[in-house]
Amino acid sequence: MTNLHEVIYVSRRAEGVTDQVVVDDIVLPAGIKNKLLEITGCLWFSRDRFLQILEGPREAVEDVYSKILADDRHYDISTVSSSPIAKRSFARWGMRSLKNSKEDRIEELIHEYAPNFGASHSPLDAPESISILEQVREYLVELATVEPATN
Ligand SMILES: Cc1cc2nc3c(=O)[nH]c(=O)nc-3n(C[C@H](O)[C@H](O)[C@H](O)COP(=O)(O)O)c2cc1C
Fold first, then answer.
1. Which atom of ligand 1 is nearest to the CA of 45?
2. What spacing in Å lies between the alpha carbon of 93 and ligand 1's midpoint?
3. I want to staple 34 with a disulfide (CB 3.0 to 4.6 A). Which of 11, 39, 88, 96 is the partner?
4. Fold (topology level) of 4-146
């Protein structure tokens, strides 16, 4: 597909947004809507964090992302990356949910690189940060492949 784009962001989960809300009210409808828009991706979540990867036609991804930015079920949203990609990492999933496992590596990466991840409006571009991003993406793809789907 031409014009393939990817957005990665991290955010904080709002209070009252239970796992059931995440799975039933966010991921399920998102999966259906995304498929119609040819968007795929994953939503990783821990007790207080989200990390989402959205991939698809640029315009569609940007439209959905603008809605996500205005959603009060999360806050402190930081765009980690927004760039063209050559191929999808989550082609099989409209929106794959990934609940953090204990001592999750993503949590570690977020905390370790919080200054970078926290810089809203300035997506990562340093080579070191790009390699962290590669690690995050690879790790999530691996999780998506091995973990039983919760949605
Ligand atoms: C963490 C999080 C992730 C979301 N991911 C998606 C998504 O991948 N696709 C989507 O359509 N909506 C997603 N949403 C929901 C949107 O914010 C929005 O509520 C939804 O697109 C409904 O828009 P509509 O009112 O135009 O139908 C997400 C919301 C949150 C809080």
1. 1
2. 15
3. 39
4. Alpha-Beta Plaits (3.30.70)
